[in-house]
Design goal:
By secondary structure, the chain is an alpha/beta fold. The protein folds into 2 domains: about 150 residues, Rossmann fold (3-Layer(aba) Sandwich), CATH 3.40.50; about 60 residues, DNA polymerase, domain 1 (Orthogonal Bundle). A 6-stranded parallel sheet has the order 3-2-1-4-5-6, sandwiched between helices. It is globular. This is Haloacid dehalogenase. It holds the Pfam family Hydrolase. It comes from Actinocatenispora comari. InterPro entries: HAD-like_sf (IPR036412), HAD-SF_hydro_IA (IPR006439), HAD_sf (IPR023214), PGP-like_dom2 (IPR023198).
């Protein structure tokens, strides 16, 4: 038990806790080069929070190619794993947020579209025990934006999703968490990258504290949200 009223905090990985989208920029650009083209900025934005097979299909649609999706997905996964192994940096304020959540006795889980291979490479670089459970994109039948990943994490922790908080950065992730019933806080890397809130509270990552999260959850329960919903 803890004194916050928060049963669990469920964190997305790429772009939320870790500055890994920059790494994906490299592997995706290399994939596009292998296919003889260059990924458009519009397509790159669509890939944020996307699962692996959908990612390679978007890349191919953008470039007008029609290679084997599974082969390209394997290539992209292997290349990105190699890049992750060189070091995946935390986003500013992310590690201290996770540590403060843990210090207050709140269970945590990692809920990501990335495959287990990438998650294991990332988890090997941080202290053990920061997350009690992790759900990966290749471990669910329906990845984000379906609610299954967040429902799976909540069930594993033994909590009601409505008593938990999801921290996300992408539209696919926000949609998944909101559909699961979580109070969802969006922390996009760049202001204005989300067009509307899509049911989430939008904050800068540096603004997120345990007490603020507790206030938001209490406010929702009383239908009087604390802070600005936008």
């Amino acid at each position: 038990m803890n004194d916050t009223g928060i049963d669990a905090v469920l964190f997305d990985m790429d772009g939320t806790l870790f500055d890994s989208e920059r790494i994906w920029d490299v592997s995706l650009a290399e994939l596009a080069h292998e296919l003889g083209g260059e990924l458009s900025p519009t397509a790159r934005q669509l890939l944020v929070g996307s699962n692996l097979l959908r990612t390679v299909r978007i890349v191919q649609d953008d470039l007008g190619t029609d290679e084997d999706d599974q082969r390209l997905a394997t290539w992209l996964l292997d290349r990105t794993c190699a890049l992750f192994a060189a070091g995946v940096p935390w986003r500013p304020g992310a590690r201290s947020l996770v540590e403060s959540v843990r210090a207050r006795g709140i269970p945590t889980a990692l809920v990501t579209t990335s495959y287990r291979a990438l998650v294991d490479v990332t988890l090997a670089q941080i202290p053990a025990g920061m997350f009690e459970f992790s759900v990966c994109g290749d471990e669910v039948e329906h990845p984000k934006p379906h609610p299954e990943p967040y429902l799976t994490a909540a069930a594993a922790l033994g909590v009601d999703p409505g008593h938990g908080i999801a921290i996300e950065d992408s539209l696919n992730g926000i949609t998944s968490a909101v559909r699961a019933g979580c109070l969802t806080v969006a922390v996009p890397e760049e202001p204005g990258t989300l067009s509307g809130s899509h049911g989430a509270v939008v904050l800068a990552l540096e603004e997120v504290t345990v007490d603020r999260l507790a206030g938001l959850l209490t406010g929702r329960r009383h239908d009087e949200p604390e802070g600005v919903w936008r």
